[in-house]
């Protein structure tokens, strides 16, 4: 741990939030002299204070401890690099178009790897009016179901959340190109 790097990061994040040392100190129930000491690199925050400091500054604890935010390359988010994440604990769905550290329920999530559909996991697509009507012949019990269906195009994502004990069917407006994805609660991400 480099106290100088940590201090510089705390200082820059505090200024970014337009907060004074006293405001942060009051929110943490410590002295503003302690914040000053950290920012000058004369000491580091105690482990017991890192959670609160992380919330106030809006930065992960590990980033505070490293003293560096390491910004992503400015690619502008490429839809060809679109990734899905699902929390194994609560089922929360997240996505991104570039590099990101995504966590849920206290655990870091890894991007899902999509597999091409197979005999058990496939979708049927019919055209109805100006829509694609998609049905997935799949069990929809509380322990094994399709959680979501997504249509990823070059400039947008349409995602429909599904729930157990309902039919695995969705409608998307017809658009050119793109890929269809669906997520099975037991077998992961599939694509067409």
Which features characterize this protein?
192 residues; alpha+beta; 434 Repressor (Amino-terminal Domain); 2 domains; 5 helices; HTH cro/C1-type domain-containing protein; Desulfoferrodoxin_Fe-bd_dom_sf; oxidoreductase activity; DNA binding; DNA-binding
Q: Give unreliable regions as ranges.
A: none
Secondary structure category: alpha+beta
Please, how many domains?
2
Largest sheet: 5 strands, mixed
Please count the helical segments.
5
Strand order of the largest sheet: 5-12-11-8-9
Overall pLDDT level: 89
Q: Name the CATH superfamily classification of the largest domain.
A: SOR catalytic domain
- According to CATH, the fold-level topology of the largest domain is Immunoglobulin-like
Could you spell the SSE succession in H and E letters? HHHHHEEEEEEEEEEEE
- Report, as a whole number of angstroms, the end-to-end distance: 47 Å
What is the radius of gyration computed over CA atoms, rounded to a whole number of angstroms? 23 Å
Shape: elongated
Q: In percent, how helical is the residue content? A: 10-25%
Structural overview:
This protein is of the alpha+beta class and 192 residues long. The chain starts with a helix and ends with a strand. It has five helices and twelve strands.
Secondary structure elements and pairings:
Elements: H1 3-16, H2 21-28, H3 32-39, H4 47-57, H5 61-66, E1 83-86, E2 93-96, E3 102-104, E4 107-109, E5 115-116, E6 124-128, E7 131-135, E8 146-152, E9 157-161, E10 169-173, E11 179-184, E12 188-191
Parallel strand pairs: 5-12
Antiparallel strand pairs: 1-2, 3-4, 6-7, 7-10, 8-9, 8-11, 11-12
Helix pairs in contact: 2-3
């Amino acid at each position: 741990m480099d106290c100088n790097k940590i201090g510089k990061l705390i200082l820059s994040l505090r200024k970014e939030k337009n907060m004074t040392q006293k405001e942060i100190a009051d929110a943490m129930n410590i002295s503003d002299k302690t914040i000053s000491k950290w920012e000058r690199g004369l000491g580091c925050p105690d482990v017991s204070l890192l959670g609160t400091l992380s919330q106030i500054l809006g930065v992960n604890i590990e980033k505070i401890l490293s003293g560096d935010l390491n910004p992503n390359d400015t690619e502008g988010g490429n839809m060809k690099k679109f990734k899905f994440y699902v929390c194994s604990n609560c089922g929360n769905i997240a996505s991104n178009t570039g590099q990101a550290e995504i966590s849920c329920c206290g655990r870091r999530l890894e991007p899902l790897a999509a597999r091409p559909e197979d005999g058990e996991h496939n979708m049927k697509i019919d055209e109805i009016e100006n829509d694609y009507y998609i049905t997935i012949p799949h069990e929809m019990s509380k322990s094994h179901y399709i959680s979501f269906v997504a249509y990823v195009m070059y400039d947008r994502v349409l995602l429909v959340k599904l729930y157990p004990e309902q039919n695995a069917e969705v409608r998307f407006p017809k658009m050119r190109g793109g890929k269809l994805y669906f997520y099975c609660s037991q077998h992961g991400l599939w694509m067409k």
